[in-house]
Batch of 2 targets.
Target 1
Amino acid sequence: MIKWFCLPELLSLFFLVLIYVYYRDKNAVLSFRRRVFHWIFRLSILSMALDLVCANLLFLHASVPQGINEGLNEVYFILIVITESAIALYVYDLLCGHDRKKRDYRAAVGGLAAFNVVFAAVALTNSLTGALFSFSPDGSYIRGPLNKLGYAVMLAELAIGVVLYARNRAMVPGRVGHVIWTLPPVALLFGGLQFLYPEVLLNGTILTSTVFVLYSNFQTCRVELDALTKLGNRPAFYEDISLKVRRGFHFQVVAVTFKTLGEINCQMGHNAGDELLVRVAEWAASLPHCTAYRFSNITFAVVFPFRGAGEASENFELFRTRFGKTWRFGGTELTLSVVVCEIIWDGRELEPSTLVEYLDAMARPSSASGS
């Protein structure tokens, strides 16, 4: 029988599973950020289910060996901190996505790794120390002196996120900044309630609230996503370069336009053409330190930070080299006929709409010989 104190956790689990059912999309391009979000969903669901199991086993202490209870609780403590860290990793990537060298990001990830190693050591030695919890002879759950250590880890991760936001504020998109102002109060509110009412299970509510905020802001903005490739579309591209121009962040756009996509659709079928577009989107999304968009039906545009002519030349050559090779799709392997072009904005007085017009003109299939 499920106890009433388990109800918030049970409802949170149901709500999270419901979101996950609508979130899953087998055609979505699995960028690093999307992969992390997949793991956030899975870890959150698993940790909430395990929390419910551990809570209800307390009432079966007479028939369940104490070692099983201890082992499951130790796994739960480790799992919930890993889940918190996965959420933090996702947010840190949002905050530092513009930084090519990502020194701040690497330092933050190092902090996450250190937190998890220390916490895992505390949890795995808990049966000897009782630092997190222990069980009385009659099976009652006793909170140890470090029982709230997981919340301390969460606070430290929130603090790192706030520092990253402060250091990178000029280049953080508005939606990301809004989330930074939203998530810490939500986490602190439910964390405080859990501290005041430890008998009620609220960890799942914290996770579900956090996942919902991230999901609604970054994973379900359909109006700014291409329906086929799940890359950002033309409006999302325009918003990105407008933000960069407004804040003076220099950038390079490398665009690739298919010259014969219509012929491929006619000869091999639209399914083969769609498969080709998804393959190219996956490749573009996998490139480091950049953001890929489906700029039009036949054009992909990838935005890189501009850090000098040398790097820009390497980025451009990367596209020429890859599209000079064959692509496998639709049961065949072909070399594609494309136009590869680039635009570099280095601070000159140009409106974002003018840059888009330039890109439109340069990326026309008839405007260049291609590569």
Note: The first strand starts at residue 133 and ends at 135.
Target 2
Amino acid sequence: MKLSARQICFFLAAVAPAGKLVLMPSVLAARTGNDLLFPALAQIAVQTALVFAVLLLARDGRTVYAMIADMAGGLIARTACIVFAAFLLFASFVPLVEQKLLVQSLFYDTLPSYVAFAPFFLFSAFLCAKPLAALGRVWDVLALLFLTGLAGILLLSVGSADYGALAPVGNAGAEGFGRGLAETTGWFYDAALLLPLAGKFEYKKGLAWKGALCSLLGGALILFFLATYYGIFQEIAVTQLFAFAHMSKYFSGITALGRIDYLFIFAIAFVMTFCAAMPVQAAADALTDAFGRTKPLAVSLSVLFNAALFAVMLVFNFAPSETIAAVTRRLFWIFPLFTAGAPLLLWTAVGIGRLIGRKTHAKK
């Protein structure tokens, strides 16, 4: 059973944005100050164009493995899927560290042991082994939860925000913009998450531009959140690592109503748990395409990937600052290489293949 076009749109508009609300705002604030909206806007524009390209690429109903195999053979196609799966596992380090820090910050008064985070990997392994139909139904629920949670937090927060703090623009300069753009690539790879889904959703007429519009809608939610975040915290925004969990507590009615904002915070935190597992799920999906879509293989890959990630995290003691620095600063170039390079290269190759096919058919 394939994913529906509606579920793809829900993912782009109201599921993928949830993974960008934990540490990314503080990283942007540290690099660009009150100009934090501009690198985010550039990232959103690029991702929207890439999402449009990936959705158009999926029109003929073939998987990525099938596209490459038709052009270059099964061996090269399997190798490409293995390399792409390795990238997705690399991309999972940031959301995993974020999830660990988020759980530690929101749900524990004292510092928990690393074993307390182990159940997440069991949950991730379970999620990665589920069929796509179940994933689509999960997105239906997550989209509603995220929109409700974000709407509640923003509704309670806008009255405390001074949006004038975003002016004057241009203080960060070209260098700040460049650093902000480079160091946020680790959060913007929505198009890469869509690639393993090619051929597994119903492509209806106009889905490419509808998906792009939904991506823009999700981007608009992120931009409004960032503007409110900086309007509230301003100069100390860089120290607010889990801003979505703290913005609404300045609402004047909290003293009378109590911390009703926790309902919205927990709703978003719940969605983020699924977002943290998505790169791993996409990696497992990419390899099952290459080596046969059987249930034992999907289960084996999900267990193997999650066990390996947990072992790596334990070896490095979940080192959050070192992991974020390595992924978003020293190795940031890996993200555009795969997120932009893979769809564009595949788009070009498929286009050339179709052109050659037309010329061959015309000669006959």
Note: The two ends are 38 Å apart (CA to CA).
